[in-house]
C-alpha cells in the first residue's frame, strides 16, 4: 500500500522550503541538508531494503509530525527572544483534557477544539506572566511545565485515557491515508506551511524578528512589544494543542506522560536549525530540517537495531559538531 | 613619553582611525578634541589594549609596545576611564575599583585592605561620602563616574586616559577632578583628557591634539593660547562648508506639537515649546544636557510630568499610540535603538509603518519592496539593493534607512536625534535636503544635534539647553555659532 | 476499579485455597502499615497503589500510611525514612530500584520494622522479612513458550521475532528478556531485534513505528508491558500490519479486551498482576500481628512468594477479565 | 538516637548565612525566609508529632544534600551568566564511573576521587565548548546532558552498580552519624561554606559577578573572561562529582538513572533564591534557601501523604508567586 506515491510526503513538506530559495542558499541550510544527505546515505548503505521505502518515509514523517508542530511554535518563541519549556507538558495536559469522559461525550470535533483551546490557554498564561508579569521566560515556562504535568496527572487520575470508539474520527487522522499518506502528515505539513507564511509573509512574523532582534528598536518603531511577546507564547500553546490532537491520533490515548522532554528536543531542533537562542534570527525551514535530522537518527538507529545509549551519545556529539560547524560558517555576534 | 604614529583602525564598513599621530609628554595634560565619531574613543581604546590597531606604532618611554589586551596595557602602566561606564552593578564600590587587581593573599580578597584603599582614593577624589561597601548598581550616574575615576587612580599608573570624565559631573565636582589631575601631573604622570567642553580644556590642558574623521588635523597646540575660533574650525573642518538648503519655500502652519512644563526629575525640568507644521525646531546643548530624553518623553517612550499635545489633543504614554497618531523618532543610538541588524534594508525601512503594507496582516511584499526601493533611490542609499541585510551597510547609509522609515505613512511630526551622526560630509547635504523637503511638505520637525552649525543651518527656531533647562529660545536667524557655543559652554543666556 | 483483590481467583491470595480463612481476617491488634511505591505514571503502578489502599481499607485494625510516590530514589529514601521515624508496625515497599533502596530497607529492619518487599527485589535478604512479587524471568519464559509453540505449530523456520522492552535500566526488564530468550532457545529460535521503551504509550508507539519499518515481515512480537502496548497496537494498526502474532505483558484490562475481540494481533498476554499489592498488605498485617497464613502449616508467613506468570489467551480470557487493571 | 542534638543541622547550614548579615538584610532573603517560616508552620500544624523531630530535620537535610551540592555549583555558573543543563547527567556518569568493577578495586578513596575527576572533566569539556568554542551554554550543556547519560548507560550496561562491601566506607558517609547527623550532611554543609567563601571572599568569586554582570567591563579590567567562564563550568562539574559521592552513599549504588531532571530543580532553586538568569547577581544563601523551600515542600507532602500531582501543581504556583514577589521587591533591569 502506498508504494506508487513514494516521494510525496517529502515533496509536500519541502514545498515551503523550496519556494524560499534565498533561505536555502544560506550556508547553514546547506550544512543541514548536507547532514541530512549523509544520514540518508548511511540509511541506504546500512539498510538498503528498509530505509528508502515509501512506508519508512511515511513513518519518519509521522514520527516527526507531533514534535514538528511544536517545533514550529518554538521557532516563533525563540526568534522572538524567548524560550518555552512547557511544550511537552502543555501537550500532555491538552490531550488529557480532550479525552476525559466529559469531553469525549461531545464528539471528536469538540475534543480537538478542546485540546487546542487548552493549549492556547496555557500558552497565554505563560505569555502573560512573561510579558506583563516580567518573569524570565525560562522560569515562567518551567513553572508552567511543572504545573501542567501535575494538572494532567490529576485530571487523568494518572491513567491512560483511551479514545472511545465513537470518537475514532480522531484516531483516523493517523490511520486514514490519502495518496498513501496519513492525514496527520498533511496536518503537520499544513502547520509548517502556515507557520512559514505567518513568519515570512505577515506583519506578525516581521514583528517577531523585530521583537527578538532588538526589542528597544521595535518599541521605538511603535510595536507593542509586550502584547506581541504574549501572543508568541499563545501561538506556541496553540501548536501544543494541535500536537495534542496528533498524539491522540497516533497513540489512541490522552495521557499525562505524553510529550516527556519534548521541550529539549524542540529547542535543540530549533537551535540546530540555525535560530539564535538570543532571538531575532531563524527560519522555520531550518528548524524542520533540524528536527528531521534528529528523527532520522532515531529511525536509523532502530532500523539498525542499535540501542538507546549509543543513540544518546551520538546525539550529543552531533549537536556539538553541528553547532561548531555552524559557528564557523556564520560569523556571529559574540554571545 | 608616549608616541603613537600612523594608527589605523578599521571596523567593518568604517575606517575609524585613518592614520592618527599623538605624542604625550610626562607630566602634561594632553587634550584630545574632535567631533562625535572623530575617533577619539577608538584611539584611546587602542592605547588601552581594548582594540588592536591595523597599522601604526606605539612607543612608550622609548620602547615600542603593543598592548594586546587590557591586561597588557595595565601592566605597562596605562589606566583608562572609559566613556561608557564600565562598572559591574552587582559588586560593591570597593570591589569595582579594585576589580582585576584586588589586594589578595592566595586568592583570598583582603577585604579590609581593599575597603580602606578604596576609601582613601574616594576621599582623594573629594567623595568620602561614597561608601566603599555600597553596591554600585544603587549609585547615581555621577557617583558611578567618580567610581570609574577612582578605579583609574587605584592603579599605580604612569599614563591616565580619561574619555569625557566630566560629562556626568557637576561644576564643583569637575573642580575636584582638576585638583587630582594637577596632583598627578605634579608627580610626573601624564594625562590624556577628552572633553567636548572647551572651557575645561583651557583650564586644565597643556597641549591639544585635534582629530577629525579619524585623522590628526593638529598636533600639540598650546591649550591656553590657541583661539577658540581656530580650535572649533579645526574640529568642524570649516574648510568643508556645511551645505544647507535655503530656508525659503517652507511656511509654518498650524501648531502640531505643544509641550507644556515637561519635567523628568533629575534629567530636565519645566520644558515648554511648540512646533508648527512645516517648521524645524532645533535643540542645541551639550552631551548629557537632556535633549534625547526630551524627545523620548514627547514620543511617549519615557515618563515625564507636564503635557504633550499633538494637534491639540494630549498624547498618552506609549509609543504605539504616538506612532499611530503620526509621530516618528529617529533615535540617537542607531544600533541599539533603531536597527534590526540581521534584517534587510526593506524590513528596516517599513518597520514603523507595517500596517500600511498589509491587508489583514498579510504583507504586500511587492509594494513594500518598491516603496523601499523608491526611498533608497531618493536618499541615495548605497548599495541600492534593498534586500541586503542592513548590517552590511556603512553607518551613514544605515542612518539614511532609519530616516527613510519615517518618510512613510504620512507623518505629522518627526523627532530626529542626531540624524547625521556618523554620516559623511557628502551624505549630510543630502540628508539636509531631505529634512528640508519634509518640512516643506508640512511636517513638523524637532531636531537634536550636537553640531551647532547644523542646528542653525536647518532650524527655523532654536532651543538651547543646559543641564536640563531651556536657557534660550528664539529664531535661528538671530543666532550664530559662537553665541550658541558660548551659551552651551558657559551657561550665559543671550 | 474492576480489580477488586478479594475476587482474586488464582494470584497469591489465600482465598483460592480450600482451607477456611481461619479467622485471619478477624480484627486483631491495631497496626500501622506504611507504604511506599514509585510515582504512578502508568496504569500498572497506579493499580498497585489503588489495590494496596483498597485492601487496607477493608481492615478495621489497619491504619494505612502511604507516602508520596516518587520516581526519584533520593526522595523515596527520604519517604521511607519518614515512615521509619513514624515507627509504623510494618512497611510495604515497592522500590524504584531494589539495589538503591536496599540500605534504607535494612535500616528499617534493624529498627525492628518488618519490611514486605513488593515486586522489585532487594538484593540483601537481611533487608526484608518477606518478598512477594511477580516472576519476571517466568514472564519472559511464558511469552517465549507461547510464541515458540505458536510458531512451531505454523511450521515457521527462522522466524523474525521482535521484542519491545520496558525501561531498559530496570533489572526486571533484563530478567524478562533473559527468560524470553531462554524459552525461545528451547525451540531453536532467537530474538531478531529488540528496543526499549519507557512503559508509556507514546514511547511504545514511537519504538514500534520504526521497528515495524525495520522488519518488513515479522512472525512474532513480545511487548513487555500492556501500558506501552496501547501505543504499540496503535502503531501496528497505523502501519496496517497483521501478519504476526503479538504477546503482551502484565495483563491490563485493555489488553484482555483486545484478546477477547479475536480480531487483534494481540493474541495473548502474560500476567504480572498488580493484585500482588493487595496480598502484600495482607501479609504485612499478618506479620505485624504475629500471625501465620492459616492455610499453610507454618506458624509464620513464608519468606518469599512468587506469583506465577499466567498466560491469558482467547480461551481463558473471560476468567481473567475481572482481574485486569485499567491502563 | 540523636535527640539531644535536635537543632544542630539547621545551625550548621545556617552558619554561613548568619555571618552574611548584609545578605540577610535584603528583601528577597526576607521573602524566602518568610516562605520557609510559613512552610514550617504548615508542618507544625499538619503533622505536629512528626515534623519538628530531630530525625525529620536530619532527613530533610539528607534529602537536600545531593542536589544542594549541585546547586552551589549552579549558583556560580548562573551568576557568571551561563547555565548548566548537564548537572544530573554528569552526576550519574560520575557515579557510574566510580562504581565500575575496575574503579572499585582501588578502594573507596579512589572511587571518590574518580567521581570528582569525572565530574570536573565533564564540566571542563562543557566549559571549553562554551568559552572557546563559543557555543551557547544552553546547547553545549544540553549536548553534555544527552551524551553523559548515554555514556553512563553504556558504561553500566544499564545496570545499577552496587558498591562492594569492601568499599562500604562510601556508604558509611550516609549511615555514620556524628552528633546524630550523618556525615553527608556535614559534607553538604562544608560545600556550602566553601562555596560561600569562594564566592564572597576570593578574587575568583568576586570576578564571577563581573564576568556575568558585565563581561565587557570585566575584560577591560584585565580579567580573562574566557578562562574564567571555562572554570565556572569545571566548578559546576566538580560539584556534580561531589554530589555523585553523596548519591552513591545514599543509594549504595552508581546508576545511569541518578539525578534525572536535577538540572531543572537546581536552576529553579537558584532563581527562586534571587540569582538573575542573566547573570551578575545572586547569592549562595539565596540558592540554598530556595532549595530548602523545595525540599520542605516535598517533605511536607511526604509527611501528609499527598500525591505528586498536587505537589507538581503547588510547585508551579510557588515558583510563579515567589518570582513575582521578588520582582516587586527588586527593581530589576528589564529582560
Ligand atoms: N566596535 C565598533 N564597530 C564598528 N564601528 C565602530 C566601533 N567603534 C567605533 N566605531 C566607529 O568608529 C568611528 C569613531 O568612533 P569613536 O567612538 O572613536 O568616536 P569619538 O571621537 O569617541 O566620538 P564621541 O565624541 O561621540 O565619543 C565612528 O564612526 C564609530 O561609529
Ligand atoms: N536612565 C537614566 N537614569 C538616570 N539618569 C539618566 C538616564 N539616562 C540619562 N540620564 C541622565 O540624563 C541626562 C541627559 O542625558 P542624554 O545623554 O540623553 O542628553 P542629550 O542631551 O541627549 O545628550 P547626547 O548628546 O548624548 O544625546 C544626563 O545627565 C544623563 O546622565
Ligand atoms: O512498572 C512495571 C510495570 O509496568 C510492569 O509491567 O511490571 C513491573 C512493574 O514494575
Ligand atoms: Mg567617544
Ligand atoms: Mg542624546
UniProtKB/TrEMBL annotation, chains A, D:
Transmembrane annotation, as ranges: 27-45, 57-79, 135-152, 178-199, 230-249, 284-303
Gene Ontology CC annotations of this record: plasma membrane
Record flagged with keyword Thylakoid: no
Transmembrane keyword on record: yes
Domain of life of the source: Bacteria
Keyword tags: Cell membrane, Membrane, Transmembrane, Transmembrane helix
GO MF annotations in UniProt: transmembrane transporter activity
Localization per Swiss-Prot or TrEMBL: Cell membrane
Lipid bilayer topology: Multi-pass membrane protein
Pfam families assigned to the protein according to its UniProt record, in alphabetical order: BPD_transp_2
Protein name: Ribose transport system permease protein
TrEMBL record, chain B:
Coiled-coil region list: none
ABC transporter domain: residues covered: 2-238, 251-492
UniProt keyword Magnesium present: no
TM spans (from-to): none
GO cellular component, as recorded: plasma membrane
Compartment(s): Cell membrane
Keywords per UniProt: ATP-binding, Cell membrane, Membrane, Nucleotide-binding, Repeat, Translocase, Transport
Main localisation: membrane
GO molecular function per UniProt: ATP binding; ATP hydrolysis activity
Cited InterPro entries: AAA+_ATPase, ABC_carbohydrate_import_ATPase, ABC_transporter-like_ATP-bd, ABC_transporter-like_CS, P-loop_NTPase
Membrane topology qualifier: Peripheral membrane protein
Name of the featured protein: Ribose transport system ATP-binding protein
Amino acid at each position: 500500500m502506498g508504494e506508487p506515491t513514494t516521494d510525496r510526503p517529502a515533496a509536500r513538506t519541502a514545498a515551503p522550503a523550496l519556494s524560499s530559495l534565498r533561505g536555502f542558499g544560506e550556508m547553514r541550510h546547506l550544512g543541514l541538508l548536507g547532514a541530512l544527505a549523509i544520514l540518508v546515505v548511511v540509511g541506504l548503505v546500512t539498510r538498503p531494503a528498509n530505509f528508502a521505502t515509501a512506508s519508512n518515509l511515511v513513518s519518519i514523517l509521522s514520527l516527526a509530525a507531533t514534535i514538528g508542530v511544536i517545533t514550529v511554535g518554538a521557532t516563533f518563541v525563540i526568534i522572538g527572544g524567548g524560550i518555552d519549556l512547557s511544550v511537552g507538558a502543555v501537550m500532555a495536559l491538552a490531550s488529557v483534557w480532550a479525552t476525559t469522559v466529559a469531553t469525549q461525550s461531545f464528539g471528536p470535533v469538540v475534543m480537538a477544539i478542546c485540546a487546542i483551546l487548552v493549549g492556547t490557554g496555557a500558552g497565554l498564561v505563560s505569555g502573560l506572566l512573561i510579558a506583563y508579569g516580567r518573569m524570565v521566560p525560562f522560569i515562567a515556562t518551567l513553572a508552567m511545565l511543572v504545573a501542567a504535568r501535575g494538572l494532567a496527572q490529576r485530571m487523568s487520575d494518572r491513567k491512560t485515557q483511551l479514545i472511545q470508539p465513537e470518537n475514532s474520527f480522531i484516531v483516523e487522522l493517523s490511520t486514514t491515508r490519502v495518496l498513501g499518506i496519513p492525514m496527520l502528515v498533511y496536518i503537520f505539513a499544513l502547520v509548517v506551511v502556515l507557520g512559514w507564511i505567518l513568519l515570512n509573509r505577515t506583519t506578525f512574523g516581521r514583528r517577531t524578528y523585530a521583537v527578538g532582534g532588538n526589542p528597544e528598536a521595535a518599541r521605538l518603531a511603535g510595536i507593542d512589544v509586550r502584547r506581541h511577546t504574549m501572543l508568541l507564547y499563545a501561538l506556541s500553546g496553540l501548536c501544543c494543542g494541535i500536537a495534542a490532537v496528533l498524539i491522540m491520533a497516533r497513540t489512541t490515548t490522552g495521557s499525562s506522560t505524553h510529550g516527556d522532554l519534548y521541550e529539549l528536543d524542540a529547542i535543540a531542533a530549533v537551535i540546530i536549525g540555525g535560530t539564535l537562542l538570543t532571538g531575532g534570527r531563524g527560519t522555520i525551514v531550518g528548524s524542520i530540517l533540524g528536527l528531521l535530522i534528529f528523527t532520522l537518527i532515531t529511525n536509523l538507529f532502530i532500523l539498525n537495531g542499535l540501542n538507546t545509549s549509543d543513540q544518546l551519545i551520538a546525539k550529543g556529539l552531533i549537536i556539538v559538531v553541528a553547532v561548531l560547524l555552524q559557528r564557523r560558517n556564520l560569523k556571529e555576534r559574540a554571545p | 613619553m608616549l608616541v603613537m604614529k600612523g594608527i589605523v583602525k578599521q571596523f567593518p564598513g568604517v575606517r575609524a582611525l585613518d592614520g592618527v599621530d599623538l605624542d604625550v609628554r610626562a607630566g602634561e595634560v594632553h587634550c584630545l578634541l574632535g567631533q562625535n565619531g572623530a575617533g577619539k574613543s577608538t584611539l584611546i581604546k587602542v592605547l588601552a589594549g581594548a582594540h588592536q590597531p591595523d597599522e601604526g606604532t606605539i612607543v612608550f618611554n622609548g620602547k615600542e609596545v603593543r598592548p594586546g589586551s587590557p591586561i597588557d596595557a595595565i601592566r605597562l602602566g596605562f589606566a583608562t576611564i572609559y566613556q561608557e561606564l564600565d562598572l559591574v552593578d552587582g559588586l560593591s564600590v570597593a570591589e569595582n575599583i579594585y576589580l582585576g587587581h584586588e589586594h589578595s593573599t592566595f586568592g583570598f580578597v583582603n577585604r579590609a585592605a581593599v575597603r580602606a584603599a578604596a576609601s582613601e582614593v574616594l576621599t582623594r577624589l573629594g567623595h568620602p561620602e561614597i561608601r566603599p561597601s555600597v553596591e554600585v548598581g544603587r549609585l547615581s550616574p555621577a557617583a558611578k563616574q567618580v567610581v570609574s575615576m577612582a578605579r583609574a587612580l587605584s592603579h599605580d599608573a604612569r599614563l591616565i586616559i580619561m574619555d569625557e570624565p566630566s560629562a556626568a559631573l557637576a561644576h564643583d565636582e569637575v573642580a575636584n577632578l582638576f585638583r587630582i589631575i594637577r596632583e598627578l601631573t605634579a608627580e610626573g604622570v601624564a594625562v590624556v583628557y577628552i572633553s567636548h567642553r572647551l572651557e575645561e580644556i583651557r583650564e586644565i590642558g597643556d597641549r591639544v591634539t585635534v582629530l577629525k574623521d579619524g585623522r590628526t588635523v593638529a598636533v600639540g597646540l598650546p591649550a591656553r593660547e590657541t583661539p577658540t575660533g581656530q580650535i572649533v574650525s579645526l574640529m568642524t573642518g570649516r574648510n568643508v562648508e556645511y551645505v544647507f538648503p535655503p530656508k525659503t519655500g517652507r511656511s509654518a502652519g498650524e501648531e502640531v506639537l505643544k509641550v507644556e512644563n515637561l519635567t523628568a526629575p533629575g534629567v530636565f525640568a519645566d520644558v515648554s515649546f511648540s512646533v508648527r507644521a512645516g517648521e524645524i525646531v532645533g535643540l542645541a546643548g551639550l552631551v548629557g544636557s537632556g535633549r534625547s530624553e526630551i524627545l523620548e518623553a514627547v514620543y511617549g517612550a519615557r515618563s515625564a510630568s507636564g503635557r504633550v499635545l499633538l494637534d491639540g489633543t494630549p498624547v498618552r504614554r506609549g509609543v504605539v499610540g504616538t506612532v499611530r497618531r503620526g509621530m516618528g523618532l529617529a533615535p540617537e543610538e542607531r544600533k541599539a535603538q533603531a536597527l534590526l541588524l540581521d534584517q534587510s534594508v526593506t524590513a528596516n525601512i517599513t518597520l514603523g509603518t507595517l500596517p500600511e503594507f498589509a491587508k489583514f496582516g498579510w504583507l504586500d511584499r511587492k509594494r513594500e519592496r518598491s516603496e523601499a526601493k523608491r526611498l533608497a533611490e531618493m536618499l541615495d542609499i548605497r548599495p541600492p539593493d534593498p534586500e541586503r541585510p542592513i548590517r552590511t551597510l556603512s553607518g551613514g547609509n544605515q542612518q539614511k534607512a532609519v530616516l527613510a522609515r519615517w518618510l512613510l505613512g504620512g507623518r505629522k511630526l518627526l523627532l530626529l536625534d542626531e540624524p547625521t551622526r556618523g554620516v559623511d560630509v557628502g551624505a549630510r547635504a543630502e540628508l539636509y535636503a531631505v529634512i528640508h523637503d519634509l518640512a516643506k511638505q508640512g511636517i513638523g520637525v524637532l531636531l537634536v544635534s550636537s553640531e551647532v552649525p547644523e542646528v542653525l543651518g536647518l532650524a527655523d527656531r532654536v532651543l538651547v539647553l543646559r543641564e536640563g533647562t531651556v536657557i534660550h529660545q528664539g529664531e535661528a536667524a538671530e543666532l550664530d555659532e559662537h553665541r550658541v557655543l558660548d551659551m552651551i559652554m558657559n551657561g550665559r543666556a543671550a | 476499579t474492576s480489580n477488586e483483590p478479594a475476587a482474586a481467583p488464582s494470584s497469591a491470595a489465600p482465598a483460592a485455597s480450600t482451607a477456611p480463612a481461619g479467622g485471619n481476617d478477624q480484627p486483631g491488634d491495631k497496626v500501622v502499615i506504611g507504604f511506599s511505591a514509585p510515582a504512578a505514571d502508568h496504569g500498572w503502578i497506579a493499580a498497585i497503589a489503588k489495590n494496596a489502599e483498597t485492601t487496607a481499607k477493608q481492615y478495621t485494625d489497619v491504619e494505612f500510611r502511604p507516602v508520596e510516590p516518587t520516581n526519584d530514589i533520593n526522595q523515596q529514601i527520604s519517604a521511607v525514612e519518614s515512615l521509619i521515624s513514624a515507627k509504623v508496625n510494618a512497611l510495604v515497599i515497592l522500590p524504584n530500584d531494589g539495589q538503591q533502596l536496599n540500605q534504607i530497607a535494612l535500616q528499617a529492619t534493624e529498627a525492628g520494622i518488618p519490611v514486605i518487599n513488593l515486586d522489585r527485589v532487594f538484593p540483601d535478604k537481611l533487608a526484608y522479612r518477606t518478598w512477594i512479587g511477580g516472576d519476571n524471568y517466568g514472564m519472559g519464559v511464558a511469552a517465549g513458550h507461547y510464541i515458540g509453540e505458536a510458531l512451531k505449530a505454523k511450521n515457521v523456520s527462522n522466524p523474525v521475532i521482535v521484542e519491545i522492552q520496558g525501561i531498559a535500566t530496570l533489572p526486571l526488564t533484563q530478567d524478562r528478556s533473559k527468560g524470553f530468550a531462554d524459552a525461545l532457545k528451547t525451540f531453536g529460535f532467537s530474538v531478531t531485534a529488540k528496543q526499549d521503551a519507557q512503559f508509556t504509550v507514546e514511547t511504545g508507539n514511537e519504538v514500534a513505528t520504526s521497528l515495524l519499518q525495520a522488519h518488513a515481515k515479522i512472525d512474532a512480537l513480545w511487548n513487555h508491558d500492556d501500558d506501552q502496548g496501547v501505543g504499540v497496537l496503535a502503531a501496528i494498526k497505523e502501519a496496517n500490519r497483521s501478519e504476526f502474532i503479538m504477546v503482551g505483558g502484565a495483563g491490563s484490562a485493555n489488553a484482555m479486551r483486545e484478546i477477547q475481540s479475536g480480531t487483534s494481533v494481540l493474541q495473548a498476554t502474560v500476567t504480572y498482576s498488580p493484585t500482588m499489592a493487595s496480598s502484600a498488605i495482607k501479609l504485612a498485617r499478618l506479620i505485624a500481628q504475629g500471625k501465620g497464613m492459616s492455610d499453610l502449616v507454618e506458624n509464620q508467613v513464608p519468606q518469599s512468594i512468587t506469583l506465577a506468570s499466567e498466560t491469558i489467551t482467547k480461551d481463558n480470557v473471560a476468567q481473567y477479565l475481572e482481574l485486569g487493571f485499567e491502563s
